[in-house]
Design goal:
Length: 244
């Protein structure tokens, strides 16, 4: 049980392996198990079910069905490009300041930007991401980089898209749960960074030094591996907006 308590407190699994932990927590005994012991083991099962999806599943980084690019469909608003400035697999562990960045493409009629942060459910898929932690709504903006901070990190699905249609006057956009008008960019946020994550953290923090200024398009292409996107029609320099 001591090993299991260590996992719950630290969020880390000892090198001896999870199967060994399970044998420690759930040892095979002969005879009739006492009521207290049974309740203790049932409690462990429930806690494990809550902890494993976000913190202990090594498959999340390789199997999460995210996409860092949103938009791209027909229609001026829904076609407008939106890119999460995260690694190409769209899984990212932010820094201690919880800094995140979005690149927004050019358009003649900017629309508000909606951001949803939801807790990842046990199945580890976007479809069952629920329990919204936070919804953000940013004012319409021209092409450029938007930097913001959010307290949500571990086991959280971050979705961003444009609000292409004006909601009904009675609709509260902070509580409305009707989905997005345009295909969202989708990223899984985790707490434990990899070397790739740390590189992106550094590049995002370098953009903070350019708040209220601008950055070259080529600099963004090089720093965030955006060569696969067709940005030829974009301005050569893009403003950096810092919403903090």
């Amino acid at each position: 049980m001591a090993h299991f308590c260590k996992v719950l407190v630290t969020g880390r699994f000892p090198r001896k392996g999870f199967s060994t932990i399970l044998r420690t927590v759930f040892p095979l005994r002969s005879g009739v198990m006492g009521c207290a012991g049974l309740l203790q083991r049932l409690l462990c099962v429930l806690i494990l079910g809550a902890v494993l999806p976000a913190a202990a599943n090594p498959q999340l980084r390789s199997n999460f069905p995210g996409r860092r690019v949103g938009g791209g469909t027909r229609g001026e608003c829904t076609a407008r490009l939106l890119v999460h400035l995260v690694p190409e697999n769209s899984v990212f562990a932010p820094d201690q300041g919880h800094l995140l960045g979005i690149l927004q493409g050019p358009t003649q009629t900017p629309k508000p930007l909606l951001i949803d942060l939801r807790r990842l459910a046990a199945a580890g898929t976007v479809a069952v991401a629920k329990d919204r932690i936070q919804r953000l709504r940013f004012d319409p903006a021209v092409a450029g980089v938007t930097l913001f901070r959010t307290p949500a990190r571990d086991g959280v699905v971050w979705e961003s898209s444009y609000q292409c249609q004006e909601p009904q006057p009675v609709v509260d956009m902070q509580s409305w749960d009707g989905g997005f008008d345009a295909p969202p960019a989708i990223t899984l946020l985790l707490a434990e960074p990899t070397a790739v994550d740390r590189g992106h953290q550094e590049r995002l923090n370098a953009l903070v030094d350019r708040c209220a200024s601008s950055v070259s398009k080529q600099h963004l292409i090089n720093d965030f591996n955006l060569a696969a996107l067709d940005l030829r029609s974009w301005p050569d320099r893009l403003p950096v907006r810092c919403l903090f």
